[in-house]
Amino acid sequence: MKLKLFVHRLSQPSRAVLIFCKLNKIEFEEVQIDLSKGEHLSPEFKEINPMQKVPAMEVDEGFKLFESHAILRFLACASPGVADHWYPADLFKRAEINSVLDWHHANLRHGSAGLVFHSKLAPLFGLPSDVQAAADCEKVLSASLAKIESFWLKEEGQFLLGNSKPSIADLSLVCETMQLEALDEKVRQRLLDPHEKVRKWMDDTRNAMQPYFGEIHGVLFQLKDKLKEMESDE
Amino acid sequence: MKLKLYADRMSQPSRAVLIFCRVNGIDFEEVKVDISKRQQLTPEFAEINPMKKVPAIVDGRFKLFESHAILQYLASAFPGVADHWYPADLFKRAKINSVLDWHHSNLRRGAAPLVLNKALAPALGLPLNPKAAAEAEIILSASLAKIESFWLKGNGRFLLGSLQPSIADLSLVCEIMQLEVLDDEVRARILGPHKKVIKWIDDTRNATQPHFDEMHAILFKAKEKLLKMHSDAGSDQTESSRKPALPSKI
After folding, report:
1. Which fold has domain B84-226?
2. What chain A residue is nearest to B66 in terms of C-alpha separation?
3. If you measure CA to CA, which chain B residue comes closest to A104?
4. Cross-chain residue pair A73–B105, CB shorter than 8 Å
5. Which residues of chain A lie closer than 8 angstroms to B98, CB-CB?
6. pLDDT in tens, A102-135
7. Both A16 and A114 in a single domain?
8. For position A127, which CATH number holds?
9. pLDDT of residue A60
10. Residues A121, A209: one domain?
11. Given an 8 Å threshold on Cβ–Cβ distance, is A103 in contact with B72?
12. DSSP E strand stretches across A95-214
């Protein structure tokens, strides 16, 4: 199975797919699609993904797939040697992981990605910051973090749903929360400080996925530094 | 112990799960959670689903919410469900998963707020919000265009060029059906340009009768009620809204 991944490391779902492949020793060719240069809008990339988003994948120059959760599920099932805890065969456990992955779209993803985009990234793309949209997204984000703290993380187990080993849900959601690094430190702390279990879970997931987690997130920390520079120049 | 399905037939994802169970002969008890009476906010229901949303299922001791997760679980866990609903073939399954994922931030994100902010909000004690409705309509139109140009490509009558419906067809068509509560003129404007979408809605409906119509009956009652409210309020009805360009599925 010859795998090509079309990704940008500043994209949270791209990072989840990259880390998953590296951890599970799935061989792939990384094709960088630079969002800040509009490369996702090229006609060539539209052939790969007509929705013009990353990540996307292609297998054996024939089968194309987009949407990170669909990609993670496919790779977990189709690649030999992937340990069961990533996407269990047990239908009950699998269903619960599916429900987190579904919940994520309109909750954590909508809140976190929206807040970071409207308050920080929009200027990098030549768009104005939308203060109202950022405020709306922050509400959704806070509510989502509270739900992870009170419901998705249980007393037993370090990972979502009380699991003792990480699943693709942990990977997807933690990569999303990492994007908050692009926010001002005091904003990030205000959002995360109330949630002790969430902070521990983020740490546990990071640790379980080293060294790849740190490596893949390198560009995010570079962005963080760049944003700080831009702001102090102003 | 029988499967319990907590649903409100006014909820698009609830209908998708109800129709799926009926079509596949899955034995279940339907427990109505009336959103217009805020029954999803009771402490009893929070025990079933702490997110306080429908649909949710209880299968023995196992509880589950999120309609796509429920459909995927039922398709896999119940014997006798035909393969086309959620194929075992990993390639086909992956493509269906990608539609289901895409749906959240696209069709759902456009259709649901449009209908809520333009028509249904008062029934839930909320104000109408024309600005939110207008923003949602943009997302909805773009999503319908994507279904027309991409998801319905291929030889078959269903999404992804399939010859038979999958859980993706059921989920997305139930979402679009909510547009029935809008004025016919508005609905015709939004759906009219998309001939393949219109045909696909019909094909999905036909493939799941009589359960499709049964589960959507409440939606048409709501439509009649809203029409009556408008004419009682003496609002200005234009001629074109009385002569639908797109026949309603009553």
Report:
1. Glutathione S-transferase Yfyf (Class Pi); Chain A, domain 2 (1.20.1050)
2. A99
3. B104
4. no
5. 65-67, 70
6. 999 999 999 999 999 999 888 877 888 889 999 9
7. no
8. 1.20.1050.10
9. 93
10. yes
11. no
12. none
Q: With a cut of 50, list the residues of chain B below it in pLDDT.
A: 237-245, 250
Q: Are residues A110 and A158 in the same domain?
A: yes
pLDDT of residue A234: 65
What domain range is A180 assigned to?
86-233
Contacts of A65 in chain B (CB under 8 A): 94-95, 98
Percent of chain A clearing pLDDT 70 (strictly above)? 100
As a whole-number percent, the residues of chain A with pLDDT over 90 amount to 87
* Final residue in a domain of this structure, among A82, A109, A125: A82
- B104 contact residues in A (CB cutoff 8 A): 102, 105-106
Q: Of B240 and A2, which is predicted with more confidence? A: A2
User: Can you give the pLDDT at residue A128?
Assistant: 87
Mutate to test the interface with B, among A63, A105, A150 (most CBs of B within 10 A): A105
Query: In one letter, which amino acid is A24?
Result: N
Does A116 share its domain with A55?
Answer: no
DSSP 8-state symbol, B121 = G
Query: Do A134 and A166 share a domain, yes or no?
Result: yes
Closest chain B C-alpha to A174 CA, distance in angstroms: 18
CA torsion sign for A126, A128, A131, A137 is: negative
Instruction: Calculate mean pLDDT across residues A60-84.
Output: 96
What is the H or E stretch that residue A56 is in? strand A56-59
Which residues in A lie closer than 8 A to residue B95 (C-beta atoms)?
A: 65, 70
Q: Report CB contact under 8 Å: A102, B68.
A: yes
Quick one: pLDDT at residue B246? Answer: 59
Q: Is the pTM for the entire model greater than 0.90? A: yes
pLDDT grade, residue A145 (50/70/90)? very high
CATH of the domain at A43: 3.40.30.10
The DSSP output letter for A33 is: -
A57: left (phi over 0), alpha (psi -120 to 50) or beta: beta
Domain edge (last residue) among A47, A82, A117: A82
The total domain count for chain A is 2
Q: Which CATH architecture has domain B3-83?
A: 3-Layer(aba) Sandwich (3.40)
Is residue A91 domain-shared with residue A186, that is, in the same domain?
yes
Residues A221 and A110 in one domain: yes
Average pLDDT for residues A160-187, to the nearest whole number? 96
Looking at the DSSP assignment, which residues form a beta bridge with residue A58? A4, A64
* Of residues B90, B98, B109, nearest to A66 (C-beta): B98
pLDDT confidence tier of residue A34, bands split at 50, 70 and 90: very high
ipTM over 0.90: yes
Could you tell me if A90 and A19 lie in one domain? Answer: no
